[in-house]
Design a protein that fits this description.
The chain has 173 residues and is an alpha+beta fold. It has 2 domains: 124 residues, Alpha-Beta Plaits; 47 residues. It is 60% helix and 16% strand. A 5-stranded antiparallel sheet has the order 2-3-1-4-5, sandwiched between helices. A hairpin with a 2-residue loop joins strand 4 and strand 5. The longest helix has 44 residues. Forms part of the ribosomal stalk, playing a central role in the interaction of the ribosome with GTP-bound translation factors.
Amino acid sequence: MNREEKSALVDSLQAEFAESAVCVVTHYQGLTVAQMEALRGKVREGGARFRVTKNRLTRLALKETPFEGLTDLFTGPTAIATSSDPVAAAKACVDFAKTNDKLVVLGAAMHGKVLDAEGVSALAKMPSLDELRAKLVGLISTPAQRVASVTQAPAGQLARVLRAYADSQSEAA
């Protein structure tokens, strides 16, 4: 890798860090190519990105970013998962690590705060932004549905009473 390629890699990492709300650092030693592809697919499904990085270049890219506190974690065979959703990358990595002991989650950073492996596990248990949005929409729409059903109920009852009265009048005649 020549100097220009290294500079381009650092620039692309800095751009990725600028767009991300979270960065999860992992060790992947011993994973097969098929397992790595499965991991990448799982991370992609969650709306995150996963890439193997060069430690020295990643440390350079981390400077002056909210993830600068992760610098010490970049030793050995490391890979990062990033996403704009604070939960997506952590959830995908932790879920994969549960089924494959060769992926080790080292830590993460979110909004300038560094999390250890336990913090990443706790973050992974939280609902994602999409799940929270769905719950919020459900909470907002439920009262409107109740109001509509309550306002329609008296009209329906009145229609049934009038129908019963009309039926009783037709029987009497």
